[in-house]
Amino acid sequence: MNATSSDVAKHAGVSRATVSQVLNGYAERFAPETAAKVFASAAALGYEPSAAGRALRRGSSDFVVALLPHTTFGGNLQDLFEQMTVTLADHGYTLVLRMSGSAASTLDRMIAGMKPAAVFSLTPFTSAEQEVLRRRNVLAVDPPSVSAVDYNRAIGRMQGLTLVDAGHRRLAFAHLRDERQDPFGFAREEGIRDVAHERGLDDPQVIDVSIDLDSALSALDALTTPGIAVACYNDDVAMSLLAAARVRGLEVPRDVAVIGMDRSDLSRIALPRLTTIEYDIVAAASAGVASLLKALGAGAPLPASTPAFLSLIPGDTV
Amino acid sequence: MNATSSDVAKHAGVSRATVSQVLNGYAERFAPETAAKVFASAAALGYEPSAAGRALRRGSSDFVVALLPHTTFGGNLQDLFEQMTVTLADHGYTLVLRMSGSAASTLDRMIAGMKPAAVFSLTPFTSAEQEVLRRRNVLAVDPPSVSAVDYNRAIGRMQGLTLVDAGHRRLAFAHLRDERQDPFGFAREEGIRDVAHERGLDDPQVIDVSIDLDSALSALDALTTPGIAVACYNDDVAMSLLAAARVRGLEVPRDVAVIGMDRSDLSRIALPRLTTIEYDIVAAASAGVASLLKALGAGAPLPASTPAFLSLIPGDTV
DNA sequence: GTGAAAGCGCTAACAA
DNA sequence: TTGTTAGCGCTTTCAC
Question: How confident is the model over A45-72, as a mean pLDDT?
């Protein structure tokens, strides 16, 4: 069914080696009519190179794996991945997507078997992922390789500074309690801690919240200081705490201040309006794609300036 | 770096053929101690078979491609694909994801190159996709092959029946507004329409809602009948409408009734408690994976009965 | 300018 | 019960 390079060679009356060369960008080494014959035959037979054969020979495949963030995956992100699919296809790469939440061990197996040309992530790799990628010696591209900033710590700092600048003197950090490991929370907690130290405040109190009212209520009750200001792992945590505060009759932000993270869709309809931080995933993506192509050796111009991926969304909860 | 089957053979003192057989499920053909040596050596060397080598030899790879629907891709769907990733990995297959929207030609190229063992989709294949799959002779699994039930229509029906049984006589369906066509929404709308016709009610009114307060307010204002009952595309839409109803001073469910879909985390902390429908993705995924595995010839027992994937979560908004 | 030869890692048929 | 052999489709020296 599928034509092989031998078929093309036979059809064009040349050798397989010639077909390979011509079709891989070395056409100018050959007589123009030879190259033309090869192109014509390939087209006539509908030749598609076998990824397996090529990968076996080259030691690595043309696949690029994109790790999908565990976040709501709306229109923008879908556009983005479709765009990436097309852009990479233009450069001879095939994009495949992969849930980033899947255990690192299955990532490892996939990499060992598939030998992708690169692994790409919109959010910083977890240390487990980094370890796997390093060990397998795979080209890894994530936002920090774009800009070298520890985004999670920066997020924590941004949350902390927002709270302190609004006059709050007592900080807390609310982790999302989850069966899944949360690689980002600790870096963000560190960011909050940094701010507390720099501003001469007490160490932040740390609580765990899962997304249900009971959990949020006990977490809220555990906060010792009245007027405490809570930096939350994400908007869901923040909204759980806000719901709990409403149940307890606490006034926001006077009795408890809350800042979220993500600017989730639902945070946009929250009342009071949730103060939160937005991560510009689309900007991160286009920067990432550019640096990916560059790392792969495909010549794509890098954007001149590094965009600011984080921005504060003002609200009424701080 | 990566051990090959030769390395394992050398280490175990046997031939490559033996290693291959033992590691591919024919261990019992060999002397127990031979098999044991092979397993031990493979483990000791951290042997991972090369997907390329195997695919080249077998003519098709161990990859299973899942086509991602063009729908908002929330936590539930992500959990589903993570679940599938793990289950398939247990059977030696590697799940990769692919935007279904990408042009059929790129799908074709991917299939030609990657030679996947199967292509899986939660939504029915488009005719262009079917054509590609048929021509490439790839095993294709989509919901119609899993069961004859159109789950999205069933969801709409269930929402509609819940509303009607609670005494509501005027139905509406609220789509999640998206620039792109949403393959699930229309089937659900049909389900609602079915119910209206069966019960002799007027055709449901249809509105579009995006997840922000302004949009929800105008959608709500567009609902012509007081006491209308709205089946929502998902919980986010429902919660947006609830927020809008609160702003407008409407009482729920008296002035407007709302039923969601998904039982999202946040719907669990909503006040009033959102009436919604839960789709048991784990059950759906295992059914899908089971039929996939069966089609692949991997002997996985199919669940005896078709599980009920849908269940009503009672609340106070209907 | 072009082709012959070798080999990537694997597995299936066959031989021993 | 195990090993030998051959070859999947491709690319890359190297020789002509």
Answer: 86
